[in-house]
Design brief:
- The protein has 58 residues and is an alpha+beta fold.
- It has one domain.
- The protein has 1 helix and 3 strands.
- Strands 1-2-3 form a 3-stranded antiparallel β-sheet, with helices on one face.
- A hairpin with an 8-residue loop joins strand 1 and strand 2.
- It starts with a strand and ends in a 10-residue tail after the last helix.
- The model has no long low-confidence stretch (mean pLDDT 89).
């Protein structure tokens, strides 16, 4: 059984943002950018728990 995956990607260089990424079971991928790893991780934990939602993605 497939499940939704959540992760935070670090920037490849200091001038780019961290990405909070959700990979859905239907193949949909959403990403939001954040200035800090803490903000990205907090967001992704909220999405995984069913709380925070990206209005563009849902």
């Amino acid at each position: 059984m497939k499940s939704t995956l959540y992760t935070v990607y670090p920037p490849p260089n200091p001038n780019l943002p961290f990405l909070a990424v959700t990979l859905m079971t239907d193949g949909t991928v959403t990403a939001r950018q954040f200035d800090t790893e803490i903000d990205a991780a907090t967001y992704i934990r909220g999405v995984a728990a069913g709380g925070a939602r990206d209005p563009k993605a849902h």
